[in-house]
Amino acid sequence: MIPSLIWPQGEAGLQPLGGMINGLRLRLPDGRMVEPLATAPWIDEPNVAALPEILRSMRGEWPCIPFGTEGATTLPDGWPIAAGTNVPPHGFAANNDWTVTENSGALVAEIRYPDDSPIELLRRRLRPANAGVQLDLEVLPRRDCNLPIALHPVLTLPQASGTARLNIGPHDTVWTHPLGSEPDPCPLVVDEVSPNLNGVLCRDGTEIDLTSLPLSERAECRVLIPNASGRATLERLDENWQTVLEWNPGDFPSLMLWISNRGRQGFPWSGRHLAIGVEPCRAAFDLGATISAGPNPVARLVPTTMEFRAGMVWHTTYTISVNALTN
After folding, report:
1. b vs e for 265-294, b when ≥16 Cβ sit within 10 Å of the residue's Cβ?
2. Is the pLDDT of residue 86 over 90?
3. Alpha-carbon gap, residue 96 to 20, rounded angstroms
4. Could you state, in order of their start, the residue ranges of all structural domains in the chain?
5. Mean pLDDT lowest for which of 60-74, 108-122, 202-216?
6. CATH number of 4-324
7. CB of 35 within 8 A of CB of 133?
8. Is the whole model's pTM more than 0.85, yes or no?
9. What's the CA gap between 77 and 265, in Å, rounded?
10. Residue 76: how many other CB atoms lie within 10 Å
11. Are 10 and 27 in contact (CB under 8 A)?
């Protein structure tokens, strides 16, 4: 049984694995209940036990500390050498069970890291906030450390191309991922900077509007927006409502977008995963702790790690909500 809350404008749970939000349903002013967060299509299928923990029941939203993973990959010129360290993708907390309880009308989840980790404990609280939820995240480090961090909301997308519109607020650059997406398709030029999200450069010399979703062709794309505004909306033009994500840009100065547009073909994706990760972060993409803590290109513009101090709790608050679109 997954601990959950029900209130007049919604319902939500927190599953133990990854501390992920489960079953978030929120009420629009006209009475409709909508589900702003995505759930992986394979979670009830056979053989999920063979998947990495983060994928077995991937859904909703979860914190990533440290953010990303590390592999023995070669990055383009200007980037440091990747460490090739074998670490769980998106950190220990994203791949293990949290203890979840209900306390005074909130869901409280906690997880303790292994003794050799510089992080001792993560705690998160989910509270109803009208047609939305407020989330509080606390990090207790056992040692001084600099780590990349992120939040990982994954939003639902409609089926028809161009029937959703993403608005990330004022921004001045969009950086494409230095590793691309091989073997999965992505039209974007690797390791390129474009001036805005509605005109990102493609390999064939054209530009693509990444605010108009879903894309018309299968694609798996990751881009980073430094100096993000702290607010992003996904307008569901097909159903006349929107999801609103708000966070503290002082804590998470960048925004990484994971546009999963039926592009991944291997198991368990099988060309059917359609969603967008809208991920506030303090990181050099999702390249892991070694790259983010070193002299990387993104760090010339914005911090790419959080400086944690032993025994000092770090705290951040963010919200996920829905409302009706107005003409």
Report:
1. eeebbeeebbbbbbbbbbbbbbbbbbbbbb
2. no
3. 11
4. 4-324
5. 60-74
6. 2.70.98.10
7. no
8. yes
9. 29
10. 11
11. yes
